Amino acid sequence: MVLPAGLTQYVVTGPRNIAKVFRAEGMHATLSHVIAMERSFGISPRGLALYAADDSGFGAQPQPQSKVDPENRVLYQIHNLVNQNLAGSSLSVITEKFQEFLATELSSIEAIGPDWTDVPDLGEFLQVHVMSAALKAMFGTYILSLNPTFIDDFWAWNPEMGTLFMGLPKWLAPSIYEKRERVLQNIMRWHDYAHAHFDCHKVADEDPAWEPYFGSKFSRKRQALFSRWEAMDKRSRAAEDMSFIWASNANSVGGSIWFLLELLLDPALQDRMMNEFRSAMVHPKSSTSVPTFNVDRLTSGALCQSVYAETLRLRVAIMIGRKAKYDMDFSGWFVKENETVAISNTIEAMDTSIWNTGTEGDPHPLETFWADRFLIYPGDKTSGPVKRQLASENSSKETETIEIERNDPAPSPAPQFSVKGVGNSWVPFSGGPRHCPGRHFAKQEMILVAAMVMSAFEIELKVEPGWRPKNDTKYFGFGTMPPSGIIPCRIRRRTQIGV
């Protein structure tokens, strides 16, 4: 990593040091979010000044030396609103609407019937239909009906997000800035129309949980929050929504593609997964419609969770930055005040001293996908995510990052999903006060997409024997790395749903 002269940055590795970074009161977030808002998402100068002046941090309590007024804690208030609304009953409404819209999307594809239909790129197919359902569930139907090219415009801009973040000037790449501007103009057009038809300056408990102009109550609460700050002009509101749309779609859609690919590449895994899908299926009203699922039951399946966690371990690449508020000691290494540290989730995900890599007779290197890596089989001491000799030592020292959701708490011979022992080595969503608030929806969306698509369609990849997709490293450091290149396939509707 190239740094400006005089700036020192340390890369922190190892579970204990990472835990210290996430938990330390002496660490606070860097300005990466403010930089992204300016460069990648095009916030206005007025809005940027509001963000840049907020030195209070993302925690509930402002940083001790903070000078910003409590009402102008824009970073914390926006982050906290997401935390509160992408969980619990609010998230349940959004997830149910997502299922509803995705079922409609998949049912209405007239080109796919009972006979095989060639699809040039499975990735693009999922990008269009999954993002359409996600946008409608979160933001209502008008964002797309007013902007028929929105999804195409977004995916045209998305590969350039990182280039913009690095500060490439407009005169060197005007087309990149034009792509960003198209997305911003689309959002502003939707905002203008929606505000003219629906008043969301105050959001009451009795208001509808979802309506077509702004979509979810969460979306309306965001607009109400933005209205508190005069500096949040039209462009700044659009940039903030653009950042959220990027975070909630570029990452989860890319993860959904990988999740589905792993099933298509391994028929035995596909059969096992279909059994979990069927156990949570809500049967459709007709033989030709797309099924929906009991979300809690589906996402608590041990294999579903293990494939989800392994997908993120291999396909997410982020750099987590923190700045020291005072001198700190990391096992004898000293970080001075105002120096920055970085955590690479990829380095931690490939640490052979921590992770289980299988046995001599059944090896599973960390560079490869292993569906069972996060499963503990009763009586099998070689199973589970942690290297065998560390399992008992680490189990009492680290907490789980994902909840193990089980309807039946009684002991069972079936394998159990667990991240115990790797809670500070599996960090695709960062940690501490900046823990990604959208992680619950991302998990539900990734598993739901695979369940709904596989239960409604048969899909065969049209690739060479032994073909394995690779990460598109252009996205390294900015979240989920989608598969590189196109994924040709053929698709037909199942004659019996879920079989």
UniProtKB/TrEMBL annotation:
Heme binds at residue 436. Residues 385-414 are annotated as: Disordered. It holds the Pfam family p450. One of its GO terms (molecular function) is iron ion binding. Residues 395-408 have a biased composition (Basic and acidic residues). InterPro entries: CYP450_sterol_14alpha_dmase (IPR050529), Cyt_P450 (IPR001128), Cyt_P450_CS (IPR017972), Cyt_P450_E_grp-IV (IPR002403), Cyt_P450_sf (IPR036396). Belongs to the cytochrome P450 family. This is Cytochrome P450.
